[in-house]
Amino acid sequence: MHKLFKSLSLLFVFLMVPTVGFSLCAEFKGKVDVAPAYIHIDLLESGKTRHEMDLPAVKADAVIFFTDGGWCLKPTVLYGTNDGSIFNGGLGFGHYTPVTDWLALTPLLGVAYTDLHAHTTIPIPGFGGVKANEKNASVSGYVGLEFNFKFSDSFRGTAVYQYSWSRSHTQIRLAKPFPVVKSNDHSEGPSYSVQIEKDLNKKWSVNLGAAYNLGLSKEKHGLRAYGAKIGIAYWFDVYGDQKVDVEAL
Per residue in 54-88, pLDDT tens? Predict the structure, then answer.
């Protein structure tokens, strides 16, 4: 429970710090989205699944526009726990670029941190399956492209493609008398996500989303994950200390 509280506290700070900073000097607007989620994770070795995890989770995202020119920040936080746990926090920077009256593109550049814990069994010749606690911490840089579709004034869709490059540190703590195994790896791979969203009013909307992620090393070690969420979003519009003609807005 303390891990969940700590992660939710980090989630709140991660989402709110950018908005507090901007409110001191400028106009900004956007939304905050919080959702229950389900995540399935496969730990892969040589391209084959050696361990599976199913995790209920909480996911939060924000989009913060801080200029009239379409520049935006996109923080995101995810925490899931069951027989094992995952924490992911990321920050993307992009530009919302309208193409037509129903399509806009947002190129993205960002960084993410992931901390994964798993309780696994590792086969060792002569000893059979040996219980192990695995911890994997990774830092990833990514580029991406977001497609924003407007179906009506109150109904929209989003599709996102990202490609990530990760450096990870893995620690496997086996049952005694086996030693702790440590390794450093590089992996890369794509992720895909889709979402549909319906406005309830000018301040609130609901959404349904799904995502798929794959990251592998040259030896095809890594992880595959997919999941879904049902979220509710709050839209905000804030002005800082700069002079603003409220009547003209």
Answer: 999 999 999 999 877 789 999 999 999 998 999 99
Say how far apart CA 17 and CA 49 lie, in whole Å.
Answer: 39
pLDDT tens digits, one per residue of 42-62: 999 899 998 999 999 999 999
Strand partners, 190: 163
What integer is the mean pLDDT of 203-217? 96
Q: Of the candidates 153, 138, 125, 150, which has an alpha carbon nearest to the alpha carbon of residue 187? A: 138
Q: Which domains does the chain have, with CATH numbers?
A: 2-248 (2.40.128.90)
Q: Are 106 and 98 in contact (CB under 8 A)?
A: no
Which H or E element spans position 60?
A: strand 48-65
What region, left, alpha or beta, does residue 200 occupy, with left being phi > 0 and alpha being psi -120 to 50 degrees?
A: alpha
- Distance CA(222)–CA(234), nearest Å, equals 35
The burial class, CB within 10 Å (0-12 / 13-18 / 19+), for 146 is buried
Report the distance separating Cα 118 and Cα 82, nearest Å. Answer: 10
The span from the CA of 60 to the CA of 78, in Å, is: 6
